[in-house]
Every structure is written in C-alpha cells, then in structure tokens.
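Minutes, project check-in
Item: structure for the 302-residue chain
Input as provided by the requester:
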Amino acid sequence: MDLLISHLAHATPGTVDSIERLVAEVRELPTRFTSPFDRAVVGGFEADRVAFAFGAGYEAALARLVPSLDPRTIRALCVTETGGGHPQAMTSKLTPRAGGGFTLDAKKRWATFGPLAEELLVVANTGVDAHGRNQLAVVRILARHARVTTMPPTPFAPELPHAEIAIDGLEVRDDDVLSGDGYAAYVKPFRTIEDVHVMGALAGHVAGMARARAWRGGVFEEALGIVAALGALAALDPLAPETHLALARVLELVTGLVTRVSAAFAPEDPARVPWERDRMLIGIAAGARAKRLEAAKKKLGL
C-alpha cells in the first residue's frame, strides 16, 4: 500500500488514452505491482477516461479470481447468455467425451474485453444435481477457437469493447476445465471481486483527475481513503457476509465521491461531459448489490 499511495501522489496521471495503450498497460503493470488490486488502482490512475479505468479494474479482478493464470494475458469471463447470467439460465454445455476430455458448446453475450481477449473463461452447464439445479464449470480456451463478434458500443463507457461469443463442438482437455464448482468458486465470488477492483480503479482515476486539475476540497484525499479501504477488502474472503457488509458502506463512499467530482469540474472542462455519461457505470449492479447486502445482514442476524 505504501508504494501504491506514493505512486498516486507523485506519478503522472492520465497517460493511457487509447484501447491499445490500455492493453499494453495491463500487460506491463504486473512487472511493477504484484497485487491485482494495486494494478487496478494504478490502471485507473493512468487512464484518461472511465472506460479505460474500468477495463484495468476488470482485468485485475480476473487475475485475483484465478491467481494461477498469467496476469499479462488479456482475458474475458463469459457468463451472460440471452436469458441472463443466472445458473438456471445457462444453456452452454460441457459434455464428457467417451475417449476423455469434453466437448464445449456455448453462446455468450456482453463479454467485456471479448474482442481483444487472447483467452476466454467460459461458464458452461455440466448437468443437473439431485434437486434439478444446473451444475457449472469454467473452461479456459484460446479466443481464436471461438467466433467472436464485437457488439455495438454501450451508451456509457463506449470505448470499452464487448463481444458475443459462439463455440460449436470444441474439444477441450480435462486440464482446460478449472478446478472447483463453476458457480461457487468463480461466478459468485467474481461479483464481489469485480466491485472491489473496478471501484478501486475508479477511485484511482478520480485521484488522477484531482491531481491533474489541482482540485480543492479534499477530493484527492477522499479518493486515497477509499483506495485504502478497498485495498483492505481486497484481501478478505469475497464470499464472507462480513466482507459484503463492509463493502456496501465503502460503495456508498464511492457514490459520494462521484457526486463531488461532478461538482468539481470546471464548466469548460472537455472531460466533464463524458464523465457525466460514464458515471452511470457505478449504478449498473445496484439491484444485485442490494440483494447481496440483505443476504449478508440475514446471515449475520442483523
């Protein structure tokens, strides 16, 4: 954390101004910072817009989710389908082959970084349990083995690309399937891990904007405080209700910080308009976060 805070206080912010530079940044950051959370924050600080901060946070979150994988590789986690991302909506299938290994058939949408990914982490259905619930696995494949179609830009952070993924009858080996339950070990914890790392990247981005514009009123200091709080949460169990309880409060602080940033912009600042457009990102998963908080309170008897 000392190295991270020092970087935010002294380095030059906003140097990543294209998707190509963002990809290069993601590859290079592991040579300077070992912690995925630190890389998320620095990536956000060095991004010149929200979309690139989000991208840095997303890739760092994947590195935290599967720490055994090379963090310099660009990846996309492929969960969402036409029916959504709930396990019961999962139609992508991983079928055992008679001679060993599996066959993967999948159709996914809204795969963040999909058009640029070298590897895909594909969530697929392996069958149902005794209660009729889908059982999931995560399969690691090279992106060139899938049909990747770039989706239209989103209304906010349009520079961050998404893709539709189609895989038909791809033969995969046993060791291409990540160990552990696909939902409990990957999909469910990623919701929390992504929140921590993407919001850390956003706080880093705000710290960079505050320094570059010499904003007064404590915006920079507030961003540093949020970075420190999220950094502590990044080390905790992402499935623990205590983590969810603390994270909910820190996310409220992020919302307050975003409001203060909107008020800090000079009217003539060209970055003000895209900021107002892209700040919508923080509210996308508000419903899921509220359910997560209520579940945590119930588990803790609060």
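Outcome recorded: The longest strand covers residues 102-112.
No further action items on this chain.
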